[in-house]
Design goal:
177 residues; alpha+beta; four-stranded antiparallel beta sheet; 13 strands
Length: 177
Amino acid sequence: MSRIGKKAVAVPAGVTASVNGNQLSVKGPKGTLAMQMSDLITYDVQSDGIAVQPANDTKKARAFWGMQRTMVQNLVTGVTEGFTKKLLITGVGYRAAAQGRNLKLQLGYSHDVNIDVPEGIEVKTPDATTVEISGADKQKVGQLAAEIRRWRKPEPYKGKGIKYDGEFIFRKEGKKK
């Protein structure tokens, strides 16, 4: 039995959920999100919440149960509050600047790195060393943050690079004479 899957996903006021064919769509103040429904899971949309149950007693259906419930929860959270990732840039001369639908990064390469921001995602740079990525779709926010971080991962000796806010970088001691 899935402890997570047993709980119904609460649908707050101002949010509507509907099933169209084999697609579950959730509409709220931050937009509309949809996900493909699995045949192994039954989705029961009611006025107060969305119940997720396995369609049969197979091992695969039970394995999908908790994950599908979490994905439904992410849809509801995304259209109500949204998701945010914060990246911190450390290093001499490393900086970021948001320019419309582009993010310009200076990371010590011979050229600037320009990243296109996908639709539905908003990127802010409160200062030159902080990047805030926000949007309704958790997967898109996390993917963009990972792509930005991939350009210059934090290194363990000086700590230079791009890291997530709250991430701990294990520091190593350098060479000794």
